[in-house]
Amino acid sequence: MAPNAYILQIFALVFIFLPLTNSNHFKFPAIFNFGDSNSDTGELVAAGIESLEPPYGRSYFQIQSGRYCDGRLIIDFLMDAMDLPFVNAYLDSIGAPSFRKGCNFAAAGSTIQPPTAQAVSPFPFGVQVAQFVRFKARVLELLAKGKKLDKYLPTEDYFQKGLYMFDIGQNDLAGAFYSKTFDQILALIPSVLTEFETGIKTLYDQGARNFWIHNTGPLGCLAQNVAKFGSDPSSLDELGCVSKHNQAAKVFNLQLHALSKKLQGQYTDSNFTYIDIYTIKSNLIANYSKFGFEHPIMACCGYGGPPLNYDSRISCGKTKVLNGTSVTAKGCNDSSEYVNWDGIHYSEAANQYVSSQILTGKYSDPAFSDKMPFLLNIKF
Fold this sequence. Notes:
alpha/beta
């Protein structure tokens, strides 16, 4: 069964129960997003730090859109489901982008902690929060000058009524495996989350009251990590994923969940929703054929062929000379058959599946399955 057909069946079942729902619970006027490549809608590309070539974007935008995917990301599906436009990247200033319904500060390669000299992104969580503070201050300055820019900017009350979304931390863990032992990585997690908590507190002081936090996915199931750290079969689990990477992700998620509960208790006038992305993605990889996929780990766009089709020396869409021969990392014929797009990021089809599971409300704390917030304006 194709992934789209499976997801449509989910929504058909959900619509049966719509009379029981409260559709107003998640009617947010704007979204402010913070994260890494899982939700970057053009930030790192707009900064001129990286470029993306075809076949990025081919499944939906027809051209590269600054997203590390063949099409839409999870955040795009969630925005669509909330009847909001795709959120523009903070640094993407060309073409008079509208920030009326929010702004995206997420940048590929970003970490929660300050970046190392080898980091891809100079925009860690603290910098993204600082960008938001600047964004808000500038918006209020412009609004005070008159109504000329109203259609491009959020109103002042949107900063309190809006939803603040977070999907970050994956790169702190994944990057640490290149230089630290497993025990050192586990010992690092509390300081990473302290940095995250500091950013949340700053946003709260800026008026944020609605927080939506994604935990990190099964890092050990990404082709990049399997290629680098999975050469010894004993390091892999029954799904072919690197065990220690996934163990670290689970520990991180347990502590992130505890922090979310702590913050909810501390800020009683706010709403903190924790989303278990790890379980959703793990279920997809373990049961990929049930959901219409044919390849759970192998990259659609890459070089090297099965079993991983991933070579760290050449990125998706690029052409390089390897071993004296010019080669190109090309896309597969049908990316909807693949969970993984380029060895690091999920395909649009996989992102759509993950979004459909988020929307059930079963993977959040607190659960919102009794409210089904997003289901009145499904467009996919």
